């Protein structure tokens, strides 16, 4: 058993009595109530999911295992020659809640090197798809294609399946998916945009650095990849991709089925696809400017044109957050400290939208949160480094999100969470309860 798996076993065993006690002794304690607005309005704010991987405070933003984004970056061991941690150290932290030692990080890196070999048939399947398929379709297909590798599914079918040990097989699948997904993403990038010029894995590089290497990027991009995958990893459990993954896995569908479903949710424009939409919006705006300088006035007009056409301003608003997303801030700070990037015209335009959009959205009066979310800033960084194919941006999100979703379902099995099955009601019932007050 690997060091990480052993640590996780210790953590899961220590945690199990807490869940048993809560269920047996306090199962009937009420922690929320549901109104008709929430029932019709996407179950907003209803407290009915449990996770210890991350928590989203509406004012403060995300905390991973109790740490804010700056605290997380500060605490974790850094990649060699970098001020950013490796994704591998973050994976250890998300799974166990403990900051790993450099040796523990090395062990995860070594484990990922073994796990990251993608079966050749995955590439055959991807090459058989129409080349103009959306890269999120390709990513989802790649994950589904690998389902036959599932160790959890093998354990289920072995006749020896039991609830206590099931998490160990989820851990195996989860680790394989996390190790392989950047390699698959790089293959898709090279297949679609670089004439199928494929680059072999560099066994000496950590996950983020190897992704940069495989897509033909510069050394500077290694930190972009590390930062990007960590920032996009988890956003508590109610968001569409995490919730879908949890829901599908709750039926004991294996992690491959579950994460492919999560990715399909991430591909929606109100969720992860918004980062592609942001770049599309900006490019349309620049086209309309026809060479003129962007100003506060013409940005304001473009925002109103979007709103008056009944569309949402991509990259703004959030179902839970009520302040600027700290993931936006972390990326903005990266831009501000990177020579060249802070002077980049696209960065300046995004900064001007940041100055303008909250006021316009507030005046428009619909959204509960006029502030930017993670997607408003992420595309600019990719664009600057030459990843200009913006339909690929959600794939990058999907690589990062695998960390959170896979850590979550490993714990779901460790703690034996039930199949998810909320209750639905009819409109007649709602009207009856409405009449009764
Ligand atoms: N532009 C225009 N209208 C908006 C926006 C926006 N950015 N955000 C919310 N609204 C509207 C929303 O469509 C709704 O209108 P209606 O009553 O006509 O249905 C109204 O404001 C109230 O919505 P909220 O309660 O503020 O937001 P909700 O929780 O329903 O939705 C989002 C959250 C994120 C789906 C929404 O803010 C949105 O569509 N934003 C733009 C897309 C986006 O950036 N998504 C990425 C989210 C982060 N991620 O990566 O997943
Ligand atoms: C996410 O990262 O999943 C998004 O911000 C959406 C959400 O939290 O609902």
Fold and architecture overview:
With 437 residues, this protein is an all-alpha fold. The chain has a domain of 187 residues: Citrate Synthase, domain 1, CATH 1.10.580. Helices cover 60% and strands 2% of the residues. It is built from 20 helices and two strands. It has a two-stranded antiparallel sheet. A hairpin with a 3-residue loop joins strand 1 and strand 2. Helix 16 runs parallel beside helix 18. The longest helix is centred in the middle third of the chain and has 28 residues. The N and C termini lie far apart (58 Å). Bound molecules: nitromethyldethia coenzyme A (NMX) and D-malate. The site of nitromethyldethia coenzyme A has 20 residues, from loops. Keywords: Transferase. This is citrate synthase (unknown stereospecificity). Its EC number is 2.3.3.16. Belongs to the citrate synthase family. It comes from Geomonas silvestris.
Keywords:
single chain; 437 residues; mainly alpha; Citrate Synthase, domain 1; two-stranded antiparallel sheet; 20 helices; 2 strands; 60% helix; 2% strand; globular; binds nitromethyldethia coenzyme A; binds D-malate
